[in-house]
Design brief:
The structure is a single chain. It contains 18 helices and three strands. It is mainly α. Among the domains are: 59 residues, lambda repressor-like DNA-binding domains (434 Repressor (Amino-terminal Domain)), CATH 1.10.260; 49 residues, no CATH class. Strands 1-3-2 form a three-stranded mixed sheet, sandwiched between helices. Strand 2 and strand 3 form a beta hairpin. The termini are far apart. About 5% of the residues have low confidence.
Amino acid sequence: MAKRITASVKPALLAWARKSVRMSVEEATSRTKIPEGVIAAWEAGEGSPSIPQLRKLGEAYKRPLAVFFLSAPPQGFDAQKEFRRLAGVRPGQESPELMIAIRNATFHREAALELIEVLGESPRLINFQLHPSGHPEEAGNLVRKHLEMPWETQLKWSSPHAALTGWRQAIEEQGAFIFQTGKVTLEEMRGTCMPDQPMPVIILNSKDAPHGRIFSLLHEYLHILLHNGGHQTSRMAGKRSPEEQPLEVTANAVAAATLLPQMEFLETVSKYPGACQGDDNQLRLLAQRVKVSPEVVLRRLVTLGKVPQRTYRQKRREWGEAIWYDRKSKGGPVPQPVKILANEGRSFARLVLTAFDRRLITTSAASDYLGAKPIHFNKIRRELATR
């Protein structure tokens, strides 16, 4: 019988890795299928996990195996403090799913910085800044020019998913990384960001409808631009402070002005006259044309003085919780390469495969970074070449 090889890992590191993702011992036991009481015993210094068991812990905590062999828990970056916290999510009350998503995004950013270095390149900096004192309409036009996004391109997109891909690609090309997670509830997070440069990170919730993700994407990118301008939303407060609220208002207003620039939008609205009277069918057709939700269209019409506020309130009551667009595509299962690019982002995937093709990282490392088996590499390359 083969001898069980244990890992020489310090109990403090085991406890730190679990707590860093806000996971209880009971949750860790359930996720890893390790017998009850064993994880708590290891953390108390009673016995050690085997290498396979340590791998299970690493998968559950989203930590590379090497981190468990450090001499002490890292004291630098703390993911729970370094992301833009949503109102109502208090420090210490985040779900394990949210902390894992943030930890995973942080790991990807660190990996990307290392890959850029081994490739002999320099990370791209986002030099554009946003200030809350600016007029939202002017700021929206400037952001749109910064992203090089013509109105005609937006109108030509074939679907909400195509629109999400288009906006995401435009922002990634500026130097941000955009990842998606489907493990966090929408009540806890629709989107968040880690705005520090180089290579700031945006995380979107794939449970949201494509239109919802588009608005969240623009909103979070605007927080990055506000951060560049020296205006930072507190990342530690679980409740909006009075000084933070203007930044949220600015991000929302400029996101709407960026998505629906006044002159071009109103010209398009003229072809759907019933939309300004609150006609549901006209609002739906107009929303399909400009690739945003009917609610965003209606809010924008209110902002531009084309629809009274009472009409917006009335329509919101009528719509209730109705979903105008399906969250999931009805075209069958999503191919694995498409799913990988949706979660990891095209920029990150391209960076990993470039380093792999130049033999700067191993097959195993590339597979770990992408969360994909090597058999999918060529399929991912072909998918990257489609746009």
